[in-house]
Amino acid sequence: xxxxxYLSGEIHTDWREQIxxxxxxxxxxxxxxxxVTDHAASDAAGDLLGxxxxxxxxxxxxxxxxxIRIKTLIEQADIVVVRFGDKYKQWNAAxxxxxxxxxxxxxxxxxxxxxIHPLKEVDxxxxxxxxxxxQVVGILKHVMxx
Length: 146
Description:
Blueprint: E1 3-9, H1 15-25, E2 30-33, H2 39-43, H3 55-76, E3 79-83, H4 91-103, E4 107-110, H5 120-125, E5 128-130, H6 133-143
Parallel strand pairs: 1-2, 1-3, 3-4, 4-5
C-alpha cells in the first residue's frame, strides 16, 4: 500500500521533518505534500499579480494563489495531518481541517492538550488526535499494516 499524506498547519517547528523521517525509517511508502512553508514566500504569493496599497487586498490575493496549491494537494491526499502549534493561531489549519472533512478524507489532528477546548469541533471530526509526531507515525504504520 502507498499513501499520499498532506501535512497542514504550523510552520515554526520541525514536526513535518519528524513525521517524514519516522515514516522513512519505518519503510512506509508515503508521499508527503504540504503548503508553502516559507512564510515570506507564502505572504507574497499574490504579489506577482500587482502591488496593492492595502494589506487586506495583498493578503486576499496571496491567500487565493496559495489556495490553488492547498486545495489541489488536499484533494489528492489519502490522509491529512493538521498541526496546531502553541505560538500562533492557525486559522488556515482549521480551514484545511474543515475542507478535508467536507471531502470525506480522514484527518489526524496534532496538538498539545492545552488547546483541546478551542479545537473540540475540529477534533470531533478527526479520525485521531495525536500529541507528538511519533504518534502520527504510529498511526500511519498501523494504517499501512499488512
